[in-house]
Amino acid sequence: MLPLAHVGITLFFAKHFKPVHLPLLATAVFSVLPDLIDKPLYLLGMAPTSRFIAHTVWFGIALALMCIAFFPRQTRVPLAVAALVGSWFHLALDLNSPLPLFFPLVSFDFTSQVGLSLSFDAATIMFELIGFCALLLVVLESD
Ligand SMILES: [Zn+2]
Fold first, then answer.
1. Total domains, the chain
2. How far is the CA of 90 from the centre of ligand 1 (A)?
3. Mean pLDDT, the chain, as a whole number?
């Protein structure tokens, strides 16, 4: 999946179905962070595929724990929730192919994965358009 879908769809849900008031900019960054980490790791030869350690559920939990540990009391909970929402929505939107969700606790066959998949099929374009529309709604609804 491409960035517009990740950011747009995640922000739309973060804005409308929030348990706490989520910082939207941080949520947007967390929603693309798995790709910003794993794809460069793959290109540098440090990961077997472009969906590696940042495409696990543990990554979101680690991000949330770091937010709780390193940010001031007033912002730590909203940032931790934003980390979970952003990174887990990323995983949900990437489920068009197998992900190493529970790696390394559950083994995963990385050899079945393509390296850097940048496909522009109909489904990808449709999700990008949905993401663009969702992002547009979030921006237009902003105060
Ligand atoms: Zn991804």
1. 1
2. 6
3. 91
Distance between Cα 74 and ligand 1 center (Å): 30
Q: How far is the CA of 70 from the centre of ligand 1 (A)?
A: 25
Q: pLDDT by residue (tens digit) across 87-105?
A: 999 999 999 888 999 999 9
115 neighbors 49 (Cβ within 8 angstroms): yes
Spacing, Cα 13 to ligand 1 middle (Å): 18
Please state, in angstroms and as integers, the Cα–Cα distance from residue 43 to each residue in 3, 32, 115, following that order. 18, 17, 9
Full residue range of the structural domain in which residue 49 is found: 3-140
What are the pLDDT digits (tens) for 8-50? 999 999 998 767 788 999 999 999 999 999 999 999 999 999 9
What's the 120 CA to ligand 1 centre distance in angstroms? Answer: 15
* Spacing, Cα 55 to ligand 1 middle (Å): 6
Residues 41, 44, 48, CA angle at the centre, nearest 5°?
60
Contact between 87 and 51 (Cβ < 8 Å) = no
